[in-house]
Amino acid sequence: MRRFRKTLITALLTTLLVGGTAGRVSASTESPLSGPLPGTAAWLADDSLGKEPPDPTTADPSEVAAFFAGLTGAQQQRLVEDHPTVVGNLDGAPVNLRYEANASAGDQVLAYDPRGRGLIAQVVGDLENATHVAVIVPGSDIDISTFDRTARQAADLQEEAGDDTAVIAWAGYTTPSGIGLDLATGRLAELGAERLTRFTDGLDAAGLPDPSLFCHSYGSVVCGLAASGTDASDIVVMGSPGMRADDVTALDTDAHIWAAKSPDDWIDRVPHVEVLSLGHGADPTSPGFGATVLPADDVPAHDEYFTPGTSTLTAFAAIAGGDL
């Protein structure tokens, strides 16, 4: 048994370190953002409203929503002007206020934290009036500097799904950088799952529809760990190394689980095992996992599941729009 485990671990690490083609080899590990948002101290010290503002670090999004609901429009605007870095990242705050607070970072930016490699969430479509909401959770090597890839995917999905669907490109966690140990373990995914759960709670607190999650590569590990804590209607994984679950039952969610994997995806060379915290478990497209498997034979590569004209994008749009 010991020799068997050693063989599996060696195979897994070899594949991740030299077998993939999606990024550079990295022996270092990433340091996720920690500590309060810039401006938190001033926010907490602001007593001008006659009530204590919610702590951005500990307050539940529903508490945040209730706080803003008790303010006048003028009071809300003053908070945007005086504390943009807090309001712009406060899950549960009204969407329009978050947009205003993040206006300097771009159009319809729902969250923006430039510290470190940076975190960002941006909306394509009319989120405040959408009948359906989709969230794209990217995999490794995505941060502010490479966010355009995820933003483009969101635009392609929203265009295919139609005007009643809003799509959020959510680069809201620290992703693995390069091909290395971070990619093989769940450390960053566990932290990402906490952030994703809070983010979706914030959407719910803002009165928005239950989202569908579209989770690519390492992002599917994040979604697997977050599954039991979100109110997502659907969870779609693609190019997945595993969801840290043996099957859909172990995900402990009412969401419909969908999975896609191209025959030309290098992820097929990653062993679907989880040994001594290395690896991410069963292949979500395997028959025993229990997910609904989507066609992906026309997807040319690991990063191309949202390519216009592919069967996957067509299926994704139908799921996002509530037609599947």
From TrEMBL:
Asked if the keyword Signal belongs to this entry, the reply reads: yes
**GO molecular function term, any single one:** hydrolase activity
Pfam families, A to Z: Abhydrolase_8
Q: Quick one: where's region Disordered?
A: 24-59
Going by the entry's taxonomy, the superkingdom of the source organism is recorded as Bacteria
Keyword set, alphabetical order:
Hydrolase, Signal
Domain DUF1023 intervals: 113-274
Signal peptide residues are: 1-27
Its recorded name reads: Alpha/beta hydrolase
Q: Give the species this sequence originates from.
A: Streptomyces macrosporus
The major lineage groups are: Bacteria, Bacillati, Actinomycetota, Actinomycetes, Kitasatosporales
